[in-house]
Amino acid sequence: MATPADEVKAHTFRKYKDGDHEVTRWSEQIFDGDRTHKCPTYVHQTPPCQGSCPSGEDIRGWLNIVRGIEKPADGMDWQEYAFRRSTQANPFPSVMGRVCPAPCQDGCNRNQVEDFVGINAVEQFIGDSALDAGLEFTPGADTGKKVAIIGGGPCGLSAAYQLRLKGHACTIFDDHEDLGGMMMYGIPGYRTPRDVLHGEMNRIINMGVETKLKTRVGEDITLEQLEKDFDAVLFAIGAQSGRDLPVDNFTEASNCLSGVAFLAAFNEGRLKGVTGKVVVIGGGDTSIDVASVARRIGKITDVHENDRPEHIILGQTAHDVAGVANREGAEVALLSRHPVSSMTAAQHEIDDATREGVEIIDSIDPIAVIMGDNGRAKALRVRKLKWEGKNMTPIDDSEYDIDADLIVSAIGQTGNLKGMEEFGNDRGLIDADKNFQVPNKPGFFVAGDIVQPHLLTTVIGQASVAVESIDHYLKNEETGKRPKVDVHHFNLLNKLRETHHEPAHFAPEGDAKVRGIDRGQHGTADADFAIH
């Protein structure tokens, strides 16, 4: 139901590859051979933390700034310098410092010594400091090109940020009342404080990003019109439709719903409580969020039919705050087909949910919804599983029923492609090539969960790669092979510019017919050879 932990890397679209942190030695060929065949180049080998970061952040770079190893130029404090370095790849350091499961920490070298560096905590500090200081982003010089971005979630906003850095105008089209996507409507507010989220989103909008909210592409405006009005179109619509549990009676029961719908009702302020035992099926971060929210908002003991959570989640009624003020903690069970050790949710999130009273039942397989009166489910029938490595076998005669007043499926998500069906595939997503272009659709690009639902940090990294492709397209350049970013070349010129020590541009003097060494170049012959 959730992607097993040992298969996560295959779905990340990481910018780096395993092993890129290993040092490449050329000393024998360059220095010990009888002749050199490779010009020496100075590189920053990719550290394993960066190699594990789907966003492609320069983690070592901004950690060195925080540690005082790398100093900012005069007039800039180290907090701003670290913020500027961090946001070259990720414009949401404050949000991501709070919610990212931090695959970078799994790759940290310090795991081989004592424990990983708390990269998330440092990133959150950098982001919070920037918000407190009111730091803003500066857009690049205007290119005259315009890009339409369909979707205002983390991917769409990250793409808008990268496009504005390059000077391209962009307009975000989103069918919600507010921007943020799953950051706003999926992740509970206690994990992403709304003032923090709005602060980081507004900083991007302040770069000159135009927004069209409550506007659905395919209904309120056609794709043909976007293609006519803009130079390129990026799909960043996310995957905000939950997948139904594939068992009998799930779609027939009114109180069987998706995790996405449950969290949206809570984050929009409509859902104030539940009315009985909640059973959540999943194993990833969404299932943990659903279970934790259900446990926290509590159970309404004096139940009116209109208070049933399915009516609230489906938007048919709304909870009255006074009516649900007197409530107690709800009974919540989270079911996972995989063992707890293989659940894809972050371990600290699993631990927190357990401490809050969520019961986690692992190695369990739902097989049917048991119907009660009035078209509602009264229980979920399950059976136990036996795992041997990656192989799973149902245990004979192990079936039993778990009573439930609300059954929530958090086993995955798909996109809502209504009005854009021509771009969809058979999985309810959109295909992308290696450069995040839509195959056989020139001028159309796609990134984020609508390609492959995954982590926030993954969609931020995909947005960066997609914008590189869009930039090439707008310049009539071949996108060709995806840029090599498995090692970071040490760019001395950029570092000199940061510290206001950029060297003067070389301008030859004298008669062009005179030998190169007489025109200010250090040459070895009459042919203008220069020593590099």
From TrEMBL:
<protein>
    <submittedName>
        <fullName>Protein similar to glutamate synthase [NADPH] small chain, clustered with sulfite reductase</fullName>
    </submittedName>
</protein>
<dbReference type="InterPro" id="IPR023753">
    <property type="entry name" value="FAD/NAD-binding_dom"/>
</dbReference>
<dbReference type="InterPro" id="IPR051394">
    <property type="entry name" value="Glutamate_Synthase"/>
</dbReference>
<dbReference type="InterPro" id="IPR009051">
    <property type="entry name" value="Helical_ferredxn"/>
</dbReference>
<dbReference type="Pfam" id="PF14691">
    <property type="entry name" value="Fer4_20"/>
</dbReference>
<dbReference type="GO" id="GO:0051536">
    <property type="term" value="F:iron-sulfur cluster binding"/>
</dbReference>
<dbReference type="InterPro" id="IPR028261">
    <property type="entry name" value="DPD_II"/>
</dbReference>
<dbReference type="InterPro" id="IPR036188">
    <property type="entry name" value="FAD/NAD-bd_sf"/>
</dbReference>
<dbReference type="Pfam" id="PF07992">
    <property type="entry name" value="Pyr_redox_2"/>
</dbReference>
<feature type="domain" description="FAD/NAD(P)-binding">
    <location>
        <begin position="145"/>
        <end position="468"/>
    </location>
</feature>
<dbReference type="GO" id="GO:0016491">
    <property type="term" value="F:oxidoreductase activity"/>
</dbReference>
<feature type="domain" description="Dihydroprymidine dehydrogenase">
    <location>
        <begin position="45"/>
        <end position="132"/>
    </location>
</feature>
